What we know:
By secondary structure, the chain is mainly β. It contains five helices and 47 strands. The strands form eleven sheets. Strands 1, 3, 4, 5, 6, 7 and 8 form a seven-stranded mixed beta sheet that branches. A hairpin with a 5-residue loop joins β4 and β5 (112-117). The protein is globular, with a radius of gyration of 28 Å. The termini are far apart. Mean pLDDT is 87; it is low at 1-8.
Amino acid sequence: MFGNKIDIKKPSKxxxxxxxxxxLELTYASEFTSERDKNIQTPLRxxxxxxxxxRIREYAFxxxxxxxxxxxxxxxxxxxxxxxxxxxxxxxxxxxxxxxLRYQIFDEDGxxxxxxxxxxxxxxxxxxxxxxxGKTNKMNLELLNESGEVIKxxxxxxxxxxxxYRLINLFEEKIHEQDSRFPYLLINGLDxxxxxxxxxxxxxxxxxxxxxxxxxxxLSNNHFLLPDKNSFTLDDNKEKYSCRFLELDYMGxxxxxxxxxxxxxxxxYSDGDKFYYLTSMDKGYENDWIVCFDLGKGEVxxxxxxxxxxxxxxxxxxxxxxxxxxxxxxxxxxxxLKNLHTIIETDVENFNINWVIGPLSIWEGTPLEKHxxxxxxxxxxxxxxxxxxxxxxxxxxxxxxxAEIIRPVFASYIYEDKKxxxxxxxxxxxxxxxxxxxxxxxxxxxxxxxDKERKKYHITNAYRTKQFYRNASLLFDDDYKNVLxxxxxxDKSGQKxxxxxxxxxxxxxxxxxxxxxxxxxxxxxxxxxxxxDYLNPIPSDxxxxxxxxxxxxxxxxxxxxxxxxxxxxxxxxxxxVSGGMLNFALRSGHVEAVYLKGxxxxxxxxxxxxxxxxxxxxxxxxxxxxxxPKDCYYIYVKADGDVYKLxxxxxxx
Length: 653
């Protein structure tokens, strides 16, 4: 089989359709059961947990490889193997001896636009990414021996269907002075599904899963969290929120389901297994706590009170702070309070303040006052910058862009140690010193040097860019030569282009590229497409549902007096069981409560929904049933003043 380079002149392939994959899933589904569903019997349909469905498909693909039906010459191609992205595929085949596979994807000019290499094996399950959408992609496959020599090669074509019309002509290049140092960028849309573009603005990845307004939440392990739209519940304040988030990789494999007890804000940060998010705990306040959640253990590690940190000067809803950014580095936490024009650094362990950049007039008489660093002015050619002169601007650049930081929205560490810190700041407005508090319609990017020994801060580089209104961030290349100014909303409604992406040279402040975006986006980050992340199978353990929601509360209310009328499906319906949860769709404003009444114990458990604002469409809510005491439960629904008894029961064994 192996020898010198051999070209296969008439290669063939077999392609699975989406229906073939679903049938394959059904074949092996009976061998998998959710631990949380094992003790539940009901005539209601049972739906596979997304993480369990992924494990079934992984198992089915392994079974195909074990049968050895497909070879390098006659391989199996599975487009969109996990129903997540039409620009992905899976290749399955076996070889007699261990070898690696290298594949190359060609652009319209016949140049290699993407290349990946797998590990050496005899059972090849090859994830293919970065296909061009709406095209028949031409590829080259090569088998490599232990020395990395090509021993066989063959061509392959894979068609990736067109993405949604909403993504056509989404991006347009306005300025192109230099090729981008960011080969792939993922754009997390506000009202369009996330996409990744290359430096030529081709869409090389698009996600078909619904992401909602929160969109994808990136994690530091090159996975992301995605809110499950079919898992609403109520928090302690009776506010509706989506309690379940799925951890996926970019192929679409679901690793775990996390059930959170808090409603998320819009700001997140991932640091290994530690996941930081904003939430609202004190009634009447928005995002007044930072929560550190351990993704590995599935538990809350710490909760940080913002009110305790800054004092009680700003405690009414009208003047409450708004956190727009948190970041962790070297056990330090960087917090941006955009409404109060302030950046704070604290230690992570005790949440003590290290330093503050912000107006003294705002923080007089508060715990922050004594920690404020004064403005030391622009700084050039300082000995402290010997190692970091790439961040120091030419004096003429500083003079030209001199301005006052007026409303920082984003801040990120470039460097941090015990004596100094370099912070990149993105401000939503800037004013010139001689036109104090007069908005000139531009935003400011500045590199700030925090001198911890002298307790001052200095601006070492500053440059203007198109003003943004919200959803802004900065993104650096690997060696901090260039920076992207990401403005998720820079033009108001009615304009052809709503958002912008601008690339700058940090040292010279020269704008190298500008890309206009037709739609508003939440955020963006570097799209890492290394297939080594997807070569290993997902562990087949049962510990893939992390966390739980509370069970319904016991009540003495009598629900036996039921109406003979039929419960309208437009108000309540679509019941099913999944992962130990009872799922159902209800129309808020009409359904007041759901009851579970035990046959033997006569105990009744109740979940109240009457205070939820009215909505025209139904939402899918979940109830914890696997934690209920053993019994046979009947389901009652109170809607528009009447109580209905449903025909299907639930037995918890």
